[in-house]
Amino acid sequence: MDYAAVIKEVGRGKEGATDLDLDTASALYGAMLDGEVPALELGALLVAFRIKGESGQEMLGFYRAMQQRMGRLRADPSQPLPVLIPSYNGARRQANLTPLLALILHRCGLPVLVHGPLTDPRRVTTTQVFSALGIAPCASLAEAQTAMSQGAPAFVPAGVLSAGLETLLNLRWRLGVRNSTHTLAKLADPFDGNSLRLVSVSHPDYLIKMADFAGLSGARMLLLRGSEGEVYANPKRLPRIEYFVDGSGKVLCEAEEGSIASVPALPESMDAQVTADWITRALHGEVPVPQPILTQVACCLVAAGQASDLESAQEKVATQFPK
After folding, report:
1. Which domains does the chain have, with CATH numbers?
2. Please, which residues have CB within 8 angstroms of residue 139's CB and are 6 or more apart in sequence?
3. pLDDT, tens digit, for every residue of 210-255?
4. Which of 23, 73, 108, 168 could crosslink 181 through cysteines, CB 3.0-4.6 Å?
5. Is-contact 62 162, C-beta < 8 A?
6. What angle, 0 to 180 degrees and rounded to 10, lies between the N-to-C axes of helices 39-52 and 22-33?
């Protein structure tokens, strides 16, 4: 591939750049994942897409290249759809409650796979909180498959899903900014569509981008604005949650508006052990689970086909976590 020619097209800035077609985008991102793009050109391309933004066709092409290079897991047809929880941001100011969401989904009978980086020098990762809870990351996809077949939630490091994916993610620390891979990693699906993906964004523009992707790809997913980039619902105020399947979407719940009626009790700090201890207390009913997270779990039950509507799903959740 003539990388200089591609850079000439995508590197003209937000207004002057030209979008790549699907096949070119797929071939380009595949070369990135395979380590075939020289370092200078790779950096130029990643920054160019950071400035330009990815078109729908480019996102779909990148996604196809990523999926072709990803390890695979089998969904058990006798069980509900597995829920995929990407966790690539971590806690910056508030406690990371992604493990709480995962463990509640598991208690409600849904198979759960969480994936993300092992470390982040600036944030508290889901891995750290899981470790404080006594849940170790899986060293291989075979180990994750075994854990899920035994009815346990599993955490898979990004590098186990795809070594190339992890390499591109880690370029953030060399380039100083995130790149397209940080968006794509949230869409990764080792189950080849036999799953429910939870997808969160931080910025409103990306709600449109992710909705476009869902429409083009037909992905089954729940889309919301997350908490500091993590996929759990804001514990203080319910966000809008939209369900996509087979190219169309519908809103399962609207965002809460107005002033907050009451602020839920949350972990005193974002420290991993403090967060893990609080999650343990919440799972034991010693402190209330924030209602927005319980509503998000109910949305997952609907999307996974385990409840016919949100009201009946909320009743099921309430049997596990009564007020």
Report:
1. 3-68 (1.20.970.10), 83-320 (3.40.1030.10)
2. 160
3. 999 999 999 999 999 999 989 999 999 999 999 999 999 999 999 9
4. 168
5. no
6. 130
